From TrEMBL:
SUPFAM superfamilies: PYP-like sensor domain (PAS domain). It comes from the Eukaryota. Pfam families: PAS_3. Residues 159-190, 275-327 are annotated as: Disordered. Residues 159-179 have a biased composition (Low complexity). Residues 23-68 form the PAS domain. Residues 295-306, 318-327 have a biased composition (Basic and acidic residues). This is PAS domain-containing protein. Gene3D superfamilies: PAS domain. It comes from Rhodofomes roseus.
Length: 353
């Protein structure tokens, strides 16, 4: 690795198949690994893994899915398109999002950034032996987002078959339990409902650039709109503060937008959407005070269609948003993370409600 390697990250999504095929790659993959997104989409992500670490990474892919894990951070080597650059030491974040794995790939280097990322992840896995120093964890920290229970249909999932070459290595020492053998498995069924949103980190409104599914919110309704349109007004100030913090974390030592660890929170999702631009221009604390220039926190999406019906002319179905079950609210758990070319928000229904 030379000193000119950009300290960036790209957002990646892979499927549940044995090959972990790329479903989505953001443009920053070119800065880190030299590939254009279209060169990777539909190809196995495991093709980029270092041969010495292939078995462990494949086993990790299987266990992450079957155990429905979230905010897992792993350190491993990935191949650069330019053979002269060889393999890049990368930090890989992974979260199960119903029927895909979403996360990011970033250049791993020691320092405060690496320590911050490791301390905010729910789990850290060291695949590359050279990355032992990255495994910094704070003792006795509570789990910020308890994992979803394993669905009944997967509790008796049989162990995957192992290749003969891998079985021959079982007697040799391995750096981790994951290194015992690479599993062979058919595509696994969907896990607990989660939706991943990719937001524009360079805009005030954090417009939605990508939505992974329709499980919690309609893809056609959310695309291109402000993320805050789907946060209930009573939680908007809090969520904006969280995202400001995440954006601040997502800057590397060179001052470039990069990965920034994980943030966890709960808020109320406005499933039908509202108009978050209906708020006074005074400082944020004034939004929650009663006054002639303030919008009632309880008005929610009822006001947006009545007062600002023309502000979002490109969005259809506004009349339906103001009535019926489409405008229900939903308490959700959320994982926030920053990356070079976007913010990632992964939401799931809060189990305590």
């Amino acid at each position: 690795m030379d000193a000119n390697t950009p300290c960036v990250s790209f957002i990646g999504i892979v499927d549940f198949t044995e090959q972990a095929k790329w479903v989505y790659c953001s443009e920053s993959v070119n800065d880190l690994l030299g590939f254009e997104p279209h060169e990777l989409i539909g190809t196995p992500s495991l093709n980029l893994v270092h041969p010495d670490e292939f078995d462990q990474v494949k086993a990790m892919h299987y266990s992450t899915i079957t155990q429905d894990r979230a905010a897992v951070l792993a350190y491993l080597r990935m191949r650069h398109k330019d053979p002269y650059k060889g393999y890049i030491l990368c930090a890989i974040s992974r979260t199960v999002c119903q029927n895909v794995l979403v996360g990011s790939v970033s250049f791993a280097s020691p320092g405060p950034k690496a320590m911050h990322n490791a301390s905010t992840a729910q789990e850290v896995r060291i695949i590359t032996p050279y990355a032992r120093d990255f495994e910094l964890r704070r003792w006795n920290d509570p789990n910020p987002m308890p994992p979803c229970p394993i669905p009944d249909r997967l509790k008796n999932t049989p162990s995957p078959a192992f290749s003969a070459s891998a079985l021959s290595r079982r007697s040799s020492p391995s750096p981790s339990p994951e290194a015992e053998a690479p599993p062979h498995f058919d595509p696994l069924p969907e896990q607990s409902p989660r939706t991943a949103l990719i937001l524009d980190r360079f805009s005030v409104n954090c417009n939605v650039l990508y939505c992974s599914n329709d499980s919690l919110i309609s893809t056609t309704r959310v695309m291109g709109r402000s993320f805050y349109d789907f946060v209930m007004s009573k939680d908007e100030v809090t969520v904006r503060a969280w995202i400001d913090v995440i954006k601040g974390w997502g800057v590397n030592e060179r001052g470039q937008p990069s990965d920034g660890g994980f943030g966890f929170g709960k808020f109320t999702l406005c499933v039908g959407g509202r108009d978050s631009s209906v708020r006074q221009t005074e400082p944020a604390p004034a939004r929650n005070r009663h006054g002639s220039h303030n919008v009632s926190r309880d008005s929610g999406s009822r006001d947006y269609g009545r007062s600002h019906r023309s502000t979002h002319s490109t969005t259809q179905g506004r009349g339906r948003d103001r009535k019926g079950s489409d405008n229900r609210d939903l308490k959700v758990d959320a994982i926030f993370s920053a990356h070079s070319d976007g913010l990632m928000v992964i939401i799931r229904k809060n189990a305590t409600r």
